[in-house]
Amino acid sequence: MPADVHTVRYLLPKFSRGQYYALMRSWANLSGFESNDIAKFRFKVISHAYDFGWQAAVAAFGVPKSTLFDWKKVYEDSGKKLNSLVPISTRPKRIRLMVTDPRVVDFIRSMRQEYGRVSKYKLKVFLDEYVKTLGLSSYGYQKIAKIIKRNHYFFDPPPKQRHRILKVRLKSHPKESIPGYLEMDSVTIYVASKKLYFITIIDVVTRFAWAKLALSLSSAQAKLALQEFMVQYIHPIRAVQTDNGHEFLAEFDEYLRQENIPHQFIYFRSPKINGVVERFNRTIQDEFLNRSDEIYTQDWDRLSQKLVHYLTWYNTRRPHYSLKYLSPMQYLSQLHSEK
């Protein structure tokens, strides 16, 4: 066997399942009668009919009489060539195509390009609003997914995840139903030989969130991040929950004491208790940090501006699954209207 035989599969393009079956049928036709079991079966039936009669062939093989005569006609019209018994492709010459408005397709592309891997469920919320302005009917979840897949609207495919098994004792997360209970954490980004920090805050009920860029991780920066959050958030703070990092001690802890805000610490090595802010950390990395070139160009002013823009969209426009596809501000307004 030649040494380059195994390289053939790398030279061919990738096929879907339907394309693969169509290719195999075509290959069977090209390879002729000897490699086609269906053609051999048809020849066996026709030969039996020639020897013992057509009724005997129908009874012996269970082939409908009309089908048997179709095979006979094709076989004899070709001058009894065996390759004439090889089945031809049954794929329709004309297939139905999905009809889409180009403006809607452009809208889906722009949303995926600007905000990353926005799911079909979240996209539908924005699409419903957009098509109303055009006087069009909206698309369903499956049609949105097909548009994304067929047009390859995957601008930043996620990296392979590394799953770490953490032996964490089972501890329950605080059951909160009133806004004002915050969780805080920090995210560290490694840029060349430097570290870049983001202090993250989120309300566990409304999912209203904030993040602050910090070039150093200290209690003073954590205090400033909380103060920025309190300026943006309209609901009073009832408590703050953090891990045991040094950035949440000293000046930060003293500030909470002065403001009469309870400071709740989680147990060591128990990140599940801080599950809401941990999930926000993952979201902000996927949707913003991994897509920001300013991290690598070290343009911190521009990065801070883009971060504020993203957080504004996150809090006022982005649908959240846990809030039944409302944004945090919409959910907060709904809570106030129910009082």
If you had to describe this structure to a student in words, what would you say it looks like?
The chain has 339 residues and is α/β, with parallel strands linked by helices. The protein has three domains: 10-85, no CATH class; 102-150, no CATH class; 181-338, Ribonuclease H-like superfamily/Ribonuclease H (Nucleotidyltransferase, domain 5). The chain contains 14 helices and five strands. The chain has a five-stranded mixed beta sheet with strand order 3-2-1-4-5, sandwiched between helices. The radius of gyration is 32 Å and the shape is elongated. Residues 163-170 have low confidence and may be disordered.
Shape: elongated
What is the helix fraction of residues, given as a range?
40-55%
> Hey, roughly how much beta strand do the residues contain?
5-15%
For the biggest sheet, the summary is: 5 strands, mixed
Count of helices?
14
**Strand adjacency order, main sheet:** 3-2-1-4-5
Tell me the number of strands. 5
In CATH terms, what is the fold-level topology of the largest domain?
Nucleotidyltransferase, domain 5
Radius of gyration: 32 Å
Properties at a glance:
alpha/beta, Nucleotidyltransferase, domain 5, single chain, 339 residues, 48% helix, 3 domains
Overview in brief:
The protein has 339 residues and is an alpha/beta fold. Helix content is 48%, strand content 10%. Strand 4 (239-242), helix 10 and strand 5 form a beta-alpha-beta unit.
